Amino acid sequence: MKNLSKIELLGFMFLLVTFVNSLYFGFTDEMLFNEHYAQEDGLVENETALMLLGVSLLCLYHLFKLWKHKKALWKTGTIIFAILFFFAAGEEISWGQRIFGLTSSEFFIEHNAQGETNLHNMVVGDTKINKLIFSQLLMVVMVTYLLVIPLLYRKTRWVKNLADTFAVPIVEWKHTIAFIGCTVLVSIIPADRKWEVYELAFGILFFLIFLAPLNRHIFEGKQE
Questions:
Q1: Mind listing the pLDDT tens digit for each residue in 124-150?
Q2: What is the pLDDT of residue 122?
């Protein structure tokens, strides 16, 4: 891939190393993969949280750097993304519950599938929120964002204007190709906790997208 910055190159190398390790452990030692490599609060989950936090911090960096140059809707979009990715990072590690040795309240013990202080493992009736929203619905959103929106952005002016106005980064085709490749590779890993690796892949890709999107002019110091 040409014209990549050093940070982008490191990001794609990190993604490659992640899948080399995941494929190796997933096929050679499923127990190690499930109980150490991709376990709760394991290496993969912590890396995912760090990447999501990195996206949030990157949004805040853009916000403070360009505050004087951008309009209210651009600032609004950037703030929303910063909050969303910070929330996702916190949810990934249950808001540091196990790191700091915190005990869940009775509400979460009763209504959370893992007894943890987070929303994505909540159970409503017989329905797991994680399965309904954070798996099925989120996958639809991701496919739309990574495959459909880039096409519309290139061909439809109102989509382009809307995305640029609200500071929505548009993926380059290299990001889309990486997403498809990650999906294929994750699907062939036999280990049960392989979807933790998929979440890490999303974290890395989103950091790369927000770092250098197709419409990178939205992160330049010019009045829109």
A1: 666 666 655 656 677 788 889 999 999
A2: 59
Q: How many CA atoms lie within 13 Å of 222's alpha carbon, on the beta-carbon side? A: 7
Per residue in 191-204, pLDDT (tens digit) is: 999 989 999 999 99
Count of beta carbons in the 10 Å neighbourhood of residue 111: 14
b/e 50-86 (16+ beta carbons within 10 angstroms → b): ebbbbbbebbbebbeebeeebeeebbebbeebbeebb
* Bridge partners, 127 (sequence order): 124
Question: Cα 2 to chain center, whole Å?
Answer: 24
pTM of the model: 0.86
Amino acid (1-letter code) at residue 97? Q
Q: How far apart are CA 59 and CA 87, in angstroms?
A: 13
- Look up residue 102 and give its DSSP letter: P
Residue with tokens 């419409």: 215
* Domain assignments of the chain as residue spans, ordered by start: 6-219
Contact residues for 43 (Cβ-Cβ < 8 A; gap 6+): 36, 37
Structure confidence at residue 57 (pLDDT): 98
